[in-house]
């Protein structure tokens, strides 16, 4: 997935540059090329950010879950992926989903206050000719009310790293060079949920900050993010344990103005 990010950042057209026939007649969303590139950079870091996919109390105290998250990555429109004054179309829409293994745990508790944490990790895997790593963590404190309501605070962070020939050479006959992309997101959420037997609907709202770094190996240029995202994100979802230790979660996640997507998680309680 993160191999897509760097394709957005090419600072000069290649011999293969041009407008995709499906995008003929479309206009670049931002007239400023730096803002257009910044939006695309922010978009994919936000698409990989670590939303809750659980209620304020993820599991019963003293238990955990091993699971797999599937985070949707909606395709960017022609207007969003045009670059260099609308003279070329970036090839960003290559993967519809980020598959991220997750391990979560809830600390033992004899009262209303509950602590928890989780780890999400995609190991170094070569995709589209690049090696990618995504590491995510979260930690939180929640309060369980006798009525079944739950509330809590949560911190989260994600680091993405991509190494490979990402930006491609200016001339197709040139040697391939190694590029480096780093993207990070971190923030905090306020969660509210209501537990009913095996089902817990929940909502979360918070602030997330995105930072990026991109080094183009063939010309030694560092592409700066002219408008890094720092703003509101929100989630609405439901967590359920329909059978024995099987755990499921479904969530709508948004960073308004950037990402509107769905996320799913299937796991096994431990």
| Contiguous uncertain segments of 5+ residues | 1-17, 168-172
Strand content: over 45%
Tally of helical segments: 3
- CATH architecture call: Beta Barrel
Oligomer: single chain
- Describe the strand arrangement of the main beta sheet, using strand numbers: 1-4-5-6-7-8-9-11-12-13
User: Do you know the CATH topology?
Assistant: Porin
Q: State the major sheet.
A: 10 strands, antiparallel, barrel
Question: What do the pLDDT scores average to?
Answer: 86
CATH top level label: Mainly Beta
Report on the structure:
It is a single chain. The protein has 270 residues and is mainly beta. The chain has a single domain, classed as Porin, CATH 2.40.160.20. It is built from three helices and 13 strands; from the N terminus they run H-H-E-H-E-E-E-E-E-E-E-E-E-E-E-E. It has helices at residues 3-7, 33-47, 78-81, and strands at residues 64-72, 82-83, 88-89, 97-106, 113-127, 130-144, 149-164, 179-194, 199-216, 221-223, 230-243, 246-255, 259-269. A ten-stranded antiparallel β-barrel has the order 1-4-5-6-7-8-9-11-12-13. Strands 2-3 form a two-stranded antiparallel sheet. The two termini are 30 Å apart. The model is unreliable at 1-17 and 168-172 (pLDDT under 50).
List keywords for this structure.
single chain, 270 residues, mainly beta, Porin, ten-stranded antiparallel β-barrel, two-stranded antiparallel ribbon, 3 helices, 52% strand, disordered N terminus
């Amino acid at each position: 997935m993160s191999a897509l990010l760097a394709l957005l950042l090419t600072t000069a057209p290649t011999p293969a540059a041009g407008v995709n026939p499906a995008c003929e007649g479309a206009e670049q969303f931002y007239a400023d090329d730096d803002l257009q590139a910044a939006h695309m950079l922010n978009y994919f870091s936000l698409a990989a950010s670590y939303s809750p996919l659980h209620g304020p109390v993820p599991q019963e105290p003293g238990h955990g879950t091993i699971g797999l998250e599937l985070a949707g990555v909606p395709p960017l429109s022609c207007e969003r992926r045009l670059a260099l004054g609308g003279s070329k179309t970036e090839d960003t829409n290559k993967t519809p989903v980020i598959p991220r293994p997750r391990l979560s745990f809830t600390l033992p508790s004899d009262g209303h206050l509950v602590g928890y944490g989780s780890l999400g990790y995609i190991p170094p895997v070569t995709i589209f000719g690049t090696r990618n790593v995504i590491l995510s963590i979260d930690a939180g404190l929640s309060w369980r009310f006798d009525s079944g309501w739950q509330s809590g605070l949560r911190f989260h962070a994600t680091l993405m790293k991509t190494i490979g020939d990402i930006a491609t050479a200016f001339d197709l006959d040139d040697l391939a060079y190694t590029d480096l992309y780093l993207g990070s997101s971190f923030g905090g959420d306020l969660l509210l949920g209501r537990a009913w037997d095996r089902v817990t609907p929940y909502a979360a709202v918070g602030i997330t900050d995105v930072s990026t770094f991109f080094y183009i190996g063939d010309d030694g240029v560092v592409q700066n993010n002219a408008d890094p995202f720092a703003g509101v994100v929100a989630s609405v979802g439901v967590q359920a344990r329909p059978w024995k230790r099987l755990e499921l979660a479904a969530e709508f996640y948004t960073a308004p103005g950037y990402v509107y997507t769905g996320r799913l998680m299937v796991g096994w309680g431990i």
